[in-house]
Task: structure prediction
Amino acid sequence: MNIKIDFNKSGGLVPTIVQEYLTNEVLMLGYMNREALSLTLKTNIAHYFSRSKNRIWEKGEESGHVQKIMDIRFDCDRDTLLVIVEQIGKTACHTGAKSCFYRSFFYNGKIDKNLYASNEANLPTKYGKFKVKAYKDGCQEHLAIMSLNFFEIEAPILRIHSECLTGDTLGSLKCDCNNQLHLSLELIAKNGGFVIYHRQEGRNIGLLNKINAYSLQDKGFNTIEANLELGFKEDEREYGAVEFILKDLGVKKVKIITNNPQKIDFLELCGVEIVERIPAITPTNCHNEEYLSTKKNHMGHYL
Ligand SMILES: [Zn+2]
Result:
């Protein structure tokens, strides 16, 4: 580990962001001084400086956050250490603080994404043979599903598919996710391309909240009203991980399968050229007509 930190510049303390390695959640914001850093590097156990107690937290203390170090990176722009740890003791952090912290520090792009990528593996499917590569992004894990000729194609077909367990896996008729995913897998198997399976369930409010939103929909709310009623924005998705995956796979040009203008804007912001938009129009049913019309009329989807 080679870390250069100017403690003089930052008043003797460096803010520390801790990311838990095994359970994938961000734990806390802490501080390191020279002593804490030297103990950390010497023992390979994370040590933090407690500003309130004015001393180093010790292992076993009630307020101590003692974890084994997996990696330490320094963010020069923010004078911040990112410490990736494996939890070896009990955590003193509250769940609410975790998710709040995760959102504020990782979802707003202030810090470079630190994603872990798997190796590539073969995945034969009923659509054809694919290669897959997984990415771990904090508490979310994503998947790139690629046709075998993916790397030989100048402008591969791309679907950025947002996870929908109820649609993708259970065949729910409340949305068009299942049809869009299968259309996309068929298209990339036939013509070459890839699907980024973006695991931000329920427009990134998570499964539990999505089901609560469905419960509200049963009472007459539409898909947007239900999210707002639960205290979320109509769309909480964030595409930082997708940008990372596109860069990792060296993608410069795509033919995008989407009806969502936000995904087009996002790709343009990433500097990926869109040579064609392939509409993801699939059959409607009596359960998803209202959902689709809300997407069209309130979210600007091309439907
Ligand atoms: Zn869905």
User: Anything to note?
Assistant: Confidence is low (pLDDT under 50) at residues 90-112. The chain is about 30% helix and 25% strand. Residues 116-200+237-299 form a domain with the Rossmann fold fold (CATH 3.40.50.10990).
